What we know:
Layout: E1 7-8, E2 14-15, H1 23-36, H2 46-62, H3 68-152, H4 157-240
Antiparallel strand pairs: 1-2
Organism: Herrania umbratica
Family: Belongs to the THOC7 family.
GO biological process, one term: mRNA export from nucleus
Amino acid sequence: MLGKGRKVSSRGETVAANYAFGPAEDDIIIKHRLLTRTTTTRGEPPLKKLQKKFTSFVLEVEKDEDNYNECAKLSKAFLQELSTFEIPLLKSKAVIDSNLREKENFNELKDEINRQILQAQTDIEDLKKQLEESKIERQHKEECEAIRKLISAPPPRSETQKSITELEKEIAALEAENTAGSRLLELRKKQFALLLHVVDELQNTIEEEQKSLIEEMRMVTEEQKSGMEDANGGSEAMAVD
């Protein structure tokens, strides 16, 4: 991987390094090297050493010579190198398993923390509502206490005398209105009694006129009847003669 190191300016400001590969490519390369173990900080890489041991063993086995001891020696060396190569892998696997368990524990802890955060937010909202209700209740209590103090406190003498004067005026006005109403009611009673008397006299007059009219009609009817009888008697006498 090609790249430039960090540069420090005269003012001590650090300038970011420019790399030939991006962060994603760097992660892939580092992961590949860790898996294949092709690089090491000291000496020859373990995988190359293992490869050499295996190659030497295979080449010695493929020879037609009677080299059993040499093959056994190379096989033992290869197995030792394989065990040496396997130990870091087992360690890495243990670290990976531990990291996975830690990750699961972290996720569970994260979920629990998120749940507690949501619960805390809900509790905070509830407490805010209770606080607002308590403020309103306290305000109402203070208003009621102020009203109670106003009610229990005796009013000034001037205000009491003024209220008494106004009440006396109202009583006098009501008495005057009552007197006027009584007089008007008495007048209306007299007018109504007079009206009934007039109606009674008018009814009597109408009845007398009706009786007089009936009597006149009866007398006219009787006179007509008598005239008709007289006329019939004269006609009969003339017929006899």
